[in-house]
């Protein structure tokens, strides 16, 4: 039998969703440092207590927004990879999907630019690895095997760093769509070179 949500459960969900939506919009438009907790709750039509109850403050809200965006990115990348059967094609589709995600202005601002500032480098990296690192590791393992020409951990770290830097460079390019296609070809050449 399906659980019917109580009025209280629906209220809790809608409060959380309102804070997440407001946080995402404000953090993308103005950045973490330039948004106050008071502005967030006022714009969401809620009290400061609601923010602290659900997220323990602005920092917790930012982290929740960040994790939601990373989870959505991981789903999108995995779905793109699942459309292919051959390991190289799966990897190429994963790279293309990742770079497309990074082209989204909200993702770029919140995850790539504000994330390291708001969360600190270690926490940013930990969360990013949790959501996207496992996809990269499994894709490279599928492509190269456990005993490829280079240690898998180093290979994964090299591609993780390259993809992150390419995403940042691509976002600042005068023609982001062209830069994204060039980045896809570059990563494809790198993958071909280590197979």
Would you give an account of this structure?
- The protein is mainly alpha-helical and 195 residues long.
- The protein has helices at residues 7-30, 37-44, 48-55, 58-82, 87-103, 105-119, 121-144, 152-171, 176-194.
In short:
The protein is an all-alpha fold. It has helices spanning 7-30, 37-44, 48-55, 58-82, 87-103, 105-119, 121-144, 152-171, 176-194. The radius of gyration is 19 Å and the shape is globular.
Name the features.
mainly alpha, globular, 82% helix, single chain, 195 residues
- Which blocks of ≥5 consecutive residues have pLDDT under 50? none
N-end to C-end Cα span:
51 Å
**Main sheet properties:** none
Share of β-strand residues:
under 5%
- Choose one word for the global shape: globular
Number of DSSP E strands:
0
Give the proportion of residues in helices: over 70%
Number of helical segments with 4 or more residues:
9
**Structural class category:** mainly alpha
Report the radius of gyration as a whole number of Å: 19 Å
Which whole number gives the mean pLDDT? Answer: 88
Write down the secondary-structure element order.
HHHHHHHHH
């Amino acid at each position: 039998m399906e659980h019917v949500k109580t009025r209280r459960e629906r209220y809790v969900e809608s409060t959380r969703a309102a804070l997440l939506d407001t946080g995402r919009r404000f953090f993308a438009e103005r950045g973490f440092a330039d948004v106050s907790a008071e502005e967030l709750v006022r714009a969401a039509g809620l009290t400061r207590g609601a923010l602290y109850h659900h997220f323990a403050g602005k920092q917790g809200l930012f982290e929740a927004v960040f994790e939601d965006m990373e989870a959505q990115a991981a789903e999108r990348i995995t779905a793109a990879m699942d459309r292919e059967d051959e390991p190289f094609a799966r990897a190429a589709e994963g790279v293309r999907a990742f770079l497309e995600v990074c082209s989204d202005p909200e993702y770029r601002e919140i995850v790539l630019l504000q994330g390291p500032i708001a969360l600190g480098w270690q926490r940013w990296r930990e969360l990013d690895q949790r959501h996207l690192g496992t996809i990269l590791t499994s894709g490279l393992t599928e492509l190269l095997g456990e005993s490829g020409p280079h240690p898998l951990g180093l290979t994964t770290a090299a591609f993780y760093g390259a993809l992150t830097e390419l995403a940042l460079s691509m976002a600042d390019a005068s023609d982001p769509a062209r830069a994204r296609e060039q980045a896809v070809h570059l990563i494809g050449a790198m993958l071909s070179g280590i197979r």
